[in-house]
Amino acid sequence: MREMINWWRGERAVTLAKSLLLGLLPLTCCLVYCAAQGRSLGEVYLPGSEWNDELFYYKQVEGIVHYGYPQGYFGFNESHALKLSFAAWSPVLVFPWVLWGLVFGWNLMSPILCNIVLMTLCCVLFVWLVRPAWKQLGVLAFLFCLYRPFVRYMLSGMPEVICFTMLILFCGLAVNYQGREKEYKLVLLFVLAGVMALMRPYLLLFLLLPSWLWIRSCRARGGVWRGILGSLGVLALVAGLYACIKHYLGAEYFAPLFFTDWVTAFFEQGILEGIRFTLGKIYYMGKDFFLHILQAFRSGLASGAYFAGFVVCTGVLAVQSLKDWGLVRRRRRSLLKDDNSSLEEDTVSQAERRLPVEACLLFGCVGMFFALLLMYKLTEGSRHLVTFMAAAVFVTALMETKFYKKAVLLGVTFAYFYSYMALNPYDYQVPYAEERSKAAQEEWSRVLEEKLALDRRQSPGFENVVIWVLMDDVDGTSVSTSWQLLYGLPRGFGISCCLPEYVLENFDSLQSRYLASPAGGEIEKLCQGAGYSRIYGDQDMVLYERR
Fold it and tell me: What integer is the mean pLDDT of 40-64?
């Protein structure tokens, strides 16, 4: 008994101290970042942001928390899901926010506080799972502070931090499993990877690691086909669930979210032409990829900065994976020859624990690189790479190093691109409350709460939808709608983001009850001519009721 107490006080007490120390880092980074700009954490203000996806995520979660699902449709050009009322993205993506809202309530600070808490728990659990040395903990803290997207996304209404934490914990649990294999850990790895895939489809790549671990375990017990068939079954189940979510719960976007022309080329033009088309697309998109990186060096282009960081992270993972693979192979050869020579047992053991995680993350990065070139727009797809880099920060910290070359290389890359060259406020500036915008927001919230009533007789329905016209022509100038004011919509209302061309062409057959557009624009003139009721307006935006 005394030995157990001493062991707890020794090893576990040190691990607990390390966990708590790293757990302080997310909040500390956020406080320091705000203080460096003369602000406080309480001044972070989502309606001050220029990232319009945040509005959709926030209002959808608000509707889920209060009614189970939004009572009005979320969509684009009045598209809507076949079932319920979610937008184009999987609602699984925001489930931690929903849980937070159910427990603590939902307001403008809720996603920010939840993000910080999630990142804190992630840091604590990761250290507890992998038990890093003090030097490794220092490397991790160093890279965490320099990787600016950690702070930027924590202080936002974007769900990227949810992806960060899920993937980082997945990597930590995989390292832990390699140290001591237990069936429940393997089940948790499948669950984590499955949920990640339901959140973002490209994260399906990480289901391959628990599948391989399961097959390896079954092979050791003489039942390899059980592992193979079981893994294929899990992969098929998760892929099928995502397909159902996308089909039934996803609204159609303005344009396809994924480009599949390289796939259809094989069916329409034949195998050889399909291969030629695919290789040609990889070549030309690859050129654009590296041109973005060059532009990031010159002007700080955010997409190019993400590409550059991603390439460096991928290179570091490749080098270390090859190094650890070689170390493990040499150790196995020496054991076969009964040669207990130069290789240290602890060094090889650490390499064996890291190698599957490094290789899996490397495979994910390579797969995502080709997916980016073949299936995404480069500028929009670049933000999906931040999740891979966030995981690479934590995995890199576990690598054996004598002179910290890999950590220094990553640190210099992060510092240059995400601090020194972080010149565009749209991509890097945390939104804070400004007196004028906050006053306008509060006035709109008050008026809309008074004049808009949620119709629950038939929900979800267009009776509870506000058309957000993306922009309009005002006296010969294209003016964007002040969409941030729509944060003031009553709980449960849906938003349909519509192009002005769609509204103008279908003005007499629009389905949504309300319409918001720039003040003094062509669409407002049409509303006045049609006799629509003006609910409220200011110099920036007007809101009309169509019936």
Answer: 95
At residue 342 the predicted structure's pLDDT band, cuts being 50, 70 and 90, is low
Phi/psi for 423 (5° steps) reads: -95, -20
H/E element holding 240? helix 224-249
Q: Which two tokens stand for residue 326?
A: 């070689």
The answer to whether the Cα torsion of 501, 59, 69, 164 is positive or negative is positive
For residues 243-248, average pLDDT: 94
CA distances from 269 to 261, 263, 266 (A): 11, 10, 6
Of 201, 132, 119, 147, nearest in space to 33 by CA:
147
* Short-list 400, 371, 406, CA closest to 385: 371
How would you list the strands of the sheet with 75-76, edge to edge? 75-76, 494-498, 465-469, 514-518, 541-545, 533-537
Is pLDDT at 5 greater than 60 in this prediction?
Answer: no
Ramachandran sector of residue 451 (left: φ over 0; alpha: ψ -120 to 50; beta: rest): alpha
State CA 9 to chain mean position distance: 38
Q: What is the pLDDT of residue 225?
A: 85
DSSP 143-195: HHHH-THHHHHHTSS-THHHHHHHHHHHHHHHHHHHHS--HHHHHHHHHHHHH
Beta carbons of 487 and 55 less than 8 angstroms apart = yes
What does residue 407 show for φ and ψ, rounded to 5 degrees?
Answer: -65, -40
Phi-psi bin for 53: left (phi > 0), alpha (psi -120 to 50), beta?
alpha
> Which residue type sits at 35?
A
SS3 state at 478? strand
Q: Against a cut of 0.85, is the pTM above it?
A: yes
Contact yes or no for 429/529 (Cβ under 8 A): no
Query: For residue 201, what are its two tokens?
Result: 């489809």
Distance CA 515, CA 523 (A): 9
- How many Cβ atoms from other residues are within 10 Å of residue 373's Cβ? 20
Place of tokens 């590409």: 307
Q: Tell me the per-residue pLDDT of 122-141, one tens digit each, with 9 for 90 and over.
A: 999 999 999 998 999 999 99
Query: CA dist 237 to 194, 199, 204, 234, 243, Å?
Result: 9, 15, 11, 5, 10
Tokens 């250290």, located at residue: 127
Q: How far apart are CA 88 and CA 256, in angstroms?
A: 10
Query: Two tokens at 228?
Result: 């193979």
pLDDT at 148: 95
The C-alpha atoms of residue 150 and residue 169 are separated, in whole angstroms, by 15
Count CB atoms within 10 A of the CB of residue 441: 23
Question: What pLDDT, in 10s, does the model give residues 156-209?
Answer: 999 999 999 999 999 999 999 988 889 999 999 999 999 999 999 999 999 999
